[in-house]
Amino acid sequence: MNTMLTKEEIKELKINGNGIIGKIVREHKSSNSYVLHILEHLGHLPKNFDGTWLPELLDSKSNQVRFWTVKNLGKLTDDEFLQTLKKVALTDSDTNVRREAVSSIGRMRNPKAKNILIEMLQDADPKVVCQAIRGLLVFKEDEKIDNSLKPLINHENEMVRAVIYKEYFAKEKQKTTQQPHAETHEYLKNVVVNGDVREILRNIPEESIHLTFTSPPYYNARDYSIYPSYQAYLEFLEEVFKEVHRTTKEGRFLIVNTSPIIIARMSRAHSSKRYPIPFDLHPYLVKMGWEFIDDIVWLKPEASVKNRNAGFLQHRKPLGYKPNAITEYLMVYRKQTEKLLDWNIKQYRWQTVKESKVADGYETSNVWRIDPKFDKVHSAVFPVELCKRIVEYYSFKGDLVFDPFGGSGTLGRTAKSLGRLFFLTEVDEKYFEYMKSFMRNNTLFGERATKFLSLSDFIKSIKQQ
Predict the structure, then answer these.
(1) Strands 327-335, 290-299: parallel, antiparallel or unpaired by DSSP?
(2) Is the dihedral of CA 70, 75, 79, 80 positive or negative?
(3) How much is the CA Rg of the chain, to the nearest whole Å?
(4) What residue spans define the domains of the chain?
């Protein structure tokens, strides 16, 4: 038999349970592609399936053949295969084959596998340990199993610790508010507050905001962002995002738009200084409870950025190369929670979920080619397209979208146009007044009137409700 078996033929042969598949594999054992084709298409194996030929493939030089062999062995419940899989898990030269062997042992759900899986908890590969944990959790509340798993809360690997914490040590969070997840406070809806965002947020209850998207002021790059030191700048952002974390709904998102910044040199006798803001800010965010999810690269046309390449263009001397910075980062974080995304989605009415679905034509990669926007009043303005994608991809209709550095209000206007509510804060009175001008021009959103408040007036509005 020289031609490949079809999926239908493999299905028919395995149901017969007469060992013919094993015979065919033995005849073609020298052809890895032929054997692999059969292994990949075996699917569910009936109880009468003769799998005695499978262990013969474990001496194959092909990692893929061995991988699919142990995967199929896990579909069989015969005790005799437990020791075979254990040997693979302990001795195979390929990491993925070892992991799959442990996974297969777990999928058997055989009580006789408990001691093998407990032994695998000592493995040096954290993913092997995680697979062993997964297999043992089937027998959770067995005293021996629980006593073997709980000490792993002190395991060196963070993924192992996270699984054990969720299974044994996580406690249901006691909410200080009974407000439904999909709702927010009336005094935050379509409101712009002039003041220090840290003071403003301290007056807001926890879990009030669904999505935050912001571009923090760049360190000492603009008149409105002067700080005594870079460390002071990072500590300022730490204060802000701690409050944002506290006031964010469980499991919801923060997207921070930043990029490295260059501070010009004092003179030709000194060097300029480049600060990697997104990379230095990241450890602060993770430490306070934000889980890193994605990095999105905002790619701008080269003609739109400052040319750093002119000197190198002339001399072409090594060490002097300076590329033009045409990218910024959108760093995506989620407020840490033991709940999965499905829980967040289920907090909404089906109609809301349906109406919020992202239309065809959405961006599929993490590189977004969007032209920057230039404004005569504000020197760093969000493009509408950038805001549109973030709002559509990370919120539902009716959600409250927040920008702690409101600037010219682009996020608010975009959020409202997409059926969301917005809350903006802005410390610079010039930009606060600039946002007001949009309302006078009737472009800052129709139905619900936007409220522009001082910090004191905002606090009064909270007390009135």
Answers:
(1) antiparallel
(2) negative
(3) 29
(4) 7-169, 186-339+354-463
Confidence at residue 212, expressed as pLDDT on a 0 to 100 scale? 98
**CATH of the structural domain 7-169, one choice from 3.30.428.10, 3.40.50.720, 1.25.10.10, 3.40.190.170:** 1.25.10.10
Domain 186-339+354-463 bears CATH identifier 3.40.190.10: no
Calpha distance 416→442 (Å, rounded):
13
Output b/e per residue, 374-413; b: 16+ Cβ within 10 A: eeeebebbbbeebbbbbbbebbbbbbbbbbbbbbbbbbbb
**How far apart (Å, rounded) are the C-alpha atoms in residues 114 and 249?**
40
What is this structure's pTM? 0.83
3-state DSSP percent of the chain in helix, strand and coil, to 5: 45, 15, 40
C-alpha 181, offset from chain centre: 20
Q: Is 211 helix (H, G, I), strand (E, B) or coil?
A: strand
**Per DSSP, which regions of 179-312 are E strands?**
191-194, 209-214, 248-258, 261-263, 273-275, 290-299
Residue-wise pLDDT for 69-101, tens only, equals 999 999 987 788 999 999 999 999 999 999 999
Average pLDDT along the chain: 89
**96 is written with which tokens?**
């993925």
